[in-house]
Amino acid sequence: MPPDIILDEELARLRRVAWRMDALVYIPRTNISLGLDNILGLIPGVGDLLSLAPSVWMIHRAWKLGATAGAIAFMVTNLVADLIVGTAPILGDIFDVLYNANIRNYQLLEKNLIRQAERARTVQEPPRRSLPPQPAALLAA
Question: PANTHER family under this entry (predicted)?
């Protein structure tokens, strides 16, 4: 299978996981979504830890797909912020609903891979320099 098809399939899989975790359903007449991350976060103590596994898996897959170190660091920061603030009762749950770390991380990965592909396209082989034409007198000597 060509690499671009494999990449497209992997990105589609990561997108599905991100949206299931953060935007499984939308609250009518709002732009607010709820996902498995929000539902699991309601379980005291272990809920936030359970929702951590798919998020860590997504970051691992991003690294395997070739995301830059800066993008991975930013994704980890998103995840840690979601985990730390999300553990606070009530306010953490509200933060979880509004922050959507998994969707942010997916979008960050997508932008990062697009930027890398654009940079790769702009790299060109330097032009070959030919020798200047030599006068016939120098060649005869």
Answer: MEMBRANE PROTEINS (PTHR35519), PH DOMAIN PROTEIN (PTHR35519:SF2)
Q: What is the maximum span of the chain, computed from C-alpha positions, in angstroms?
A: 93
Task: Give residue-wise pLDDT tens across range 67-85.
Answer: 999 999 999 999 999 999 9
**Crossing angle of helices 69-86/47-65, nearest 10°?**
170
> Taking a C-beta distance cutoff of 8 angstroms, is the pair 51, 98 a contact?
no
Residue 52 to residue 75: CA distance in whole angstroms: 13
Q: Is 76 helix (H, G, I), strand (E, B) or coil?
A: helix
pLDDT of residue 39 exceeding 80, the answer is yes
pTM (predicted TM-score): 0.81
Q: What are phi and psi of 18, to 5 degrees?
A: -60, -45
Residue pair 33/23 in contact by the 8 Å Cβ criterion:
yes
Parse the chain into domains and list their residue ranges. Answer: 3-117
